Amino acid sequence: MVTSGTRLRSQVCDTEVIVVRPADSLDDLRAGGVPMVPLGTTVTAGATLHVDFADGNVLGKRYVDGAGAEILVTKPGAGALSIGTVRLTLKGAEPLPASD
After folding, report:
1. 7 by DSSP, 3-state: which?
2. Which pLDDT tens digit goes with each residue over 19-52?
3. 0.85 cut: is pTM over it?
4. What is the rounded CA–CA span in Å between residue 29 and residue 22?
5. If you ran DSSP here, which 8-state letter would residue 80 be given?
6. Under DSSP, is residue 28 helix (H, G, I), strand (E, B) or coil?
7. Angle of CA points 52, 57, 74, to nearest 5°
8. Where are the alpha helices (DSSP H) in 17-83?
9. What is the pLDDT of residues 60-80, one digit of tens each?
């Protein structure tokens, strides 16, 4: 299981992330359609960016899934983030409290 603070990298692009809120679903976290690996791990030879997951991600943005997982992009890349074949969604800004 992936834990909070775990740093992962893509095998097919420059994407690097850090886990902010873990969930069991992150065991199948992918970038560009290919499973991500721990930072410092050797990438699989011959892995290629899947065309359906090639629209990238944004530096400094948080991405979430329906199970409550949250990751932060620390280095952007060409691969879209997903859990299996289900894309993660960009986390929206939280509204600030009103001040009178």
Report:
1. strand
2. 999 999 999 999 999 999 999 998 888 899 999 9
3. yes
4. 11
5. P
6. helix
7. 140
8. none
9. 999 999 999 999 999 999 999
